[in-house]
Batch of 3 targets.
Target 1
Amino acid sequence: MSPHPRHLTILATCLIAVSMTTHASPAVCKTASRAQSDTESEPHAIDALARWVEQNCTPAKIRQLTEDGKHSVRDALQQTLIEAHTRRAQRTGLFFFDPDDATDPLPLWARPAPGHQARCTTAVLLVHGLDEPGDIWDELAPELHDAGFCVARFEYPNDQAIADSTHMLAGALTTLAEAGVTDVNIVAHSMGGLIARDLLTAPDYYDTITADHPELPNIPHLITIGTPNLGSAFAPLRTIAELRDQFHQLPSLKDISAADLLAFVADGDGTAGIDLKPNSPYLTELNARPLPQGTHFTIIAGRIAPAVSDGLADILDSSFARALLTDEQIAALTTQAAAANDAIGDGVVSLDSATSLQIPDTEVLDADHRSMLRTVPLERTIRRWTTGETRTEPPAIPIILDRLAPHPLPSDQPASN
C-alpha cells in the first residue's frame, strides 16, 4: 500500500524552493542562487541548491512530478479500498456460535471450514438488520446456546439492495444444508425479517413452500423482531445509523487505518435505505406475495411510550377531566393518543408497520428497537424512573426461547400461514 512518497516529497520540496525564490523561473532561480554563492556564507551549499533547483524545478519536471503524485495517490486509494472490501468479506457470511473455539473476526463465532459437518441437524440462524454495529445478538446467542440450541449467525453488507442480501442468505442456508443441518429456525431483527421473508416467498428460492427442498433446509419457524413490513419513515435518516455502525466497528483510535475509515464503502451503495422507504417498489412487490406455508410465524414488535399513553388515559378518566370535557372529547383524545403511540412504535418502526401482516402469534413489548434484544442502560434507567419497572434481560429473549422450545404450537394458530 506504499504510495511512492518520493514523488510527493520532491514535488513539495521543489514548490517550496520555487516559493523561496519568489516564484522565479529556473534561469532566474539559478542566477539568484549563483549570486548568493559569491557571498562568503556556505557557498558550496548554495551552489548545490542552485543545481538541484535547475534540475528539478523546470515546468516539465513539475508537471511530471504532479502526474506521478496523482498516480501514487490513486494507487494508494485503490489498494485501501481493496483492503476495506477484504475486511468486510472477513465479517460476511455464516458463523457458528462456539465459545470453546473462538476465531477472529467475531469473538465466540467460528466460520465453518470447507466440508464442515455441523454438530446438529436443527439450528437457529440469526439475521441482523440495517446498519447493525454487530452486537445485537450478544445477549440472545449465549441464552440460546445455554438452552441447548445450535446457533449460527448470518452477516452481510447491510447497505446493499435487500434482494442481494436475500441471495447471500440463500447461500448461507445452502451451506447449512451441506453441513447436515436439515431444519433452520430463523430469528431476524429489523430489516433481517424482510430478507428472511423475501427468501421464503421468492420464486427463485422457497416460493412460499418452506419444506422439501433438497438443496435447502426446512424452515419450521420464523421470528421477526421490529421488522418494518410496511417500511420505515426513518429510512431516509439511515446515514446516522451508518455512522454509528462504522464507529462501533473501529478499533482503538491509535490503530485506525485508512481501510477502517473507508469501511462504509464495502457495506453497499445505500440501496437498502431506498428499499425500506414506505411504498417502495421492493416492499410493494414483497407484500404482494402470500405468506410462506409450512413455517410458524411469530412477530415481536416494540412500543416505547405506553407509560405516556397510560398516564394520559388516567388523566382523561379523572373527575377533573370529566368536568371540563365531554365524553366525545375524551374519547377522541384517547384515540389520538393511542394512534400517536402506535406511530412512534419502537422509535424506528411504527407498530402498524411491524404488525401489518396480521399474524396471530404477535407480541407487542414495551421496549424500543434495540432494547427488545439488547440491554440499553439509558432506556432501562428511564423506564425504572417512569414506571418503577426493573428488567433482568431484554424482553424479547424469553419469548424467543419459548417459541423455539419443543412444545405444541399455540391453539389459535395452525402450523401453516
Target 2
Amino acid sequence: METKELFVPISLESIEPVIFPDVALYIKTGGNYVLYKNNGRDFSAHDHERLSKHGVEFVFVSKNDMDVITSYMEEAAERLLKGDTLTSRAKGKMIYQTSINFVDDIFNNPEKSTDLNRTRRLIENLMLYLSDEPDAISSLETVMLHNYHTFVHSLQVASLSLLMHSEAYSLSRDEMLDVGTGAILHDFGKIFVPQGILNKNGKLNETEIEILKRHPEEGFVYLQNKGVLTPVALSIVRFHHERCNGSGYPLGLENNEIPRSAQVTGIADVYCTLTTDHHGNKTMPPHVAVQIMENQMNGLFSPHLLGTLEKLVCTEEVQQFIL
C-alpha cells in the first residue's frame, strides 16, 4: 500500500534496553542508513542514554526484521502501559509504534486481517492509554516523516473515534472494541487502489476518483468474506464516506440511514485529513478545521457529533495534538 521502504523507524523511547529483540539497528544520517549495532549484541542502557543525549529520536530496523519486532512490541505493550517505568510521552510513543506496525503489517499482508484477537489487543491497549493518561491527547505524538501517512492516519482516526464515542455515548467495552477495530481498519480497502493513484501529487482525474471511491465497498467485501469482524466494525469500513445530506458514497445514505459509528469515524476521518498533510505537518488549527466542517461543509455531518468533536479538540490543552 505504501511505498516499500528498506528500513522502518522505531521510536527510541519505545525500546527497552537489553530485552529488545536482537536485530541490527541503524541510524539515519544525511539520508543514509548507518549501522549502529549489529545482531549478536544487546542494545544496552548505555546505548539508549548515548543516543538520547545526541538527540536521536528514531533508530531503524530492516523490513525483514519487522515480524520479530512487531510481535515483541505487541506482547510488551500492555505490561508497559500498566507500569510506571515509562513517562506518558513514552507510552504515547509505544502506542504510536505498535499501532503503525500493526496497520503496516495488516495492509501489506491482508490475510492477517483474520487475526481478530490481535486486533482487539491493539484496541484494548489504545483504550487503556486514552483512559488512564490524563494528558493522553497531548502526549500521543505522531511523527509522520517516514512515508507512513496511511498507517498513522489510521491510528489518528481510531484514537479520535474512540474519544468521540466515549464522550457522546455510553458504550460497553465490547462495543468500544468494535468501534476501534472498524476505525483502525476504515481505509483497509485502499489496498486495492493502485499506488499511482494513492501517491499522486496533483489532482486526480474523474476516472481516478471513481477508482478511489471504490475503497470502502472493496474493503467491506474483503473483510466480510473473512467472517471475523462484527457488523459494527464492518459498517465503519463500508460507510465512513457516507454523508448526512446523501452526497456520500458508496450508497448515498442520509442521516440516520448511516450507522452511528460510521458517522463518528467519518467525522474523525475528515478532521484528521484537514489538520495534517501527507508529510505530517499541521495544515490548520483545530478550531479552523471544525469551523470549515460546520460552515463550508454544512449538512454533511451531524450537528450533535460536530459539537462532540469541537468539545474534544478545541481546547488549549489539545492544541499540540496532531490529529
Target 3
Amino acid sequence: MAHVKAGGTAKGNKDSVSKRLGVKIYGGQRAIAGNVIVRQKGSKFYPGTGVDMGKDFTIFATAAGVVAFITKRGKRYVSVLPSNEK
C-alpha cells in the first residue's frame, strides 16, 4: 500500500518578511530634515520638537540637528535639537 507520511510537513512552514522596525538614528547622532529616526508599530515613541509622525507611526526629522530621547510623565519623546556647529 502506498502511504504518504510527510504530507502535512509543509503546512505550517510559512514565515513573514521582517518589517525592519526600531530606532534608526540614536540619541546624540546628527539628523537632517527627512531622515527616519524611528520605525514602529503604534506610538512607542512620541514626536517632540523638530520631528513629526507619519501615518504608519514613523517618526522623521523636520529640521536638522542632534537627536535626543526624552522621557516625560512616562512617555518617551524624540526630538531633534538644533546644533550650534555649521
